[in-house]
Write a structure and sequence with these properties.
Family: Belongs to the PNP/MTAP phosphorylase family. MTAP subfamily.
Number of strands: 11
Bound molecules: hypoxanthine
Order of helices and strands: EEEEHEEEHEEHEHEH
Largest sheet: 11 strands, mixed
Shape: globular
GO biological process, one term: L-methionine salvage from methylthioadenosine
GO molecular function, one term: S-methyl-5-thioadenosine phosphorylase activity
Number of helices: 5
Pfam family, one: PNP_UDP_1
Structural class: alpha/beta
Distance between the termini: 14 Å
Strand content: 25-35%
InterPro entries: MTAP, Nucleoside_phosphorylase_d, Nucleoside_phosphorylase_sf, Purine_phosphorylase-2_CS
Radius of gyration: 17 Å
Length: 243
């Protein structure tokens, strides 16, 4: 079953016809919210609100291990994760969707592996290409049929938050090769890889990253872009589930 993880601005999918909610409790604790099972255009899908429903968990407070373990337990076979990001390079203008193909992790202090029990054999997963190729291609094909502004590829820089970055930090991320910046891509992506769940990310650029515009970044500005952008994402995901 295809699963969606909704980030900021996507706590609920309005077009999802809910058929069951799974209030799961994993060996890592409870996920951010019950896993919702529903139908999109007649296709059975799963949905999880990354920050809880209502949105209460900050990026560093999310129990990513419980979220991924719960999705797997509920029957997920692939995950499309949606997140709001800041745009760094011209390839990531505000309002556009980016389908990243690379990632750099700047987060710290998060539980970022399932393999930390002494009873389990240590596994170093290959993470050269953090996003699943086939899932990315399928999303790309879907985006190509839409009217949305989008960009294929790009490097996602995962920062700790919850504050936004300094202009110097963004300049550093840009030198490192990052095109977009967000706070939740890691450890979510690597945990999916450890569970062998194909995972891809759809990032909505909601503001120019720090130092990339002449004005202060405000929540009002971000919320306005999220409001219009996530409606397009919901339609796209419904079409994706059907096709
Ligand atoms: N930085 C980090 N995370 C974000 C941003 C940003 O500018 N915008 C939305 N999520």
């Amino acid at each position: 079953m295809l699963a969606f993880i909704g980030g900021t601005g996507l706590t609920r999918m309005d077009n999802l016809r809910i058929v069951a909610t799974h209030p799961l409790d994993t060996r890592f604790g409870k996920p951010s919210a019950p896993v919702v099972e529903g139908e999109l255009h007649g296709r059975r899908v799963l949905f999880l609100a990354r920050h809880g429903d209502p949105h209460v968990l900050l990026p560093h407070q999310v129990n990513y291990r419980a979220n991924l373990a719960a999705l797997k337990e509920a029957g997920a076979s692939a995950i499309v994760a949606v997140n709001a990001v800041g745009g760094i390079t011209p390839d990531a203008p505000t309002g556009a969707l980016v389908l990243p193909d690379q990632m750099i992790d700047y987060t710290w202090g998060r539980d970022s592996t399932f393999f930390d029990s002494p009873d389990e054999p240590l596994v170093h997963v290959d993470f050269s290409w953090p996003f699943d190729g086939a899932l990315r291609t399928a999303l790309k094909n879907q985006l190509a049929t839409s009217e949305l502004a989008w960009n294929d590829g790009g490097c996602y820089g995962a920062t700790q938050g919850p504050r936004l970055e300094t202009a110097a930090e963004i300049a550093r991320l840009e030198r490192d090769g990052c095109d977009i910046v967000g706070m939740t891509g890691m450890p979510e992506a690597v945990l999916a890889r450890e569970l062998a769940l194909p995972y891809a990310m759809l990032s909505l650029v909601v503001n120019p990253a720090a130092g990339k515009s002449t004005h202060e970044i405000t929540m009002a500005e971000i919320e306005a872009v999220i409001h219009s952008g996530m409606a397009g994402v919901c339609t796209l995901l419904a079409d994706f589930a059907r096709d």
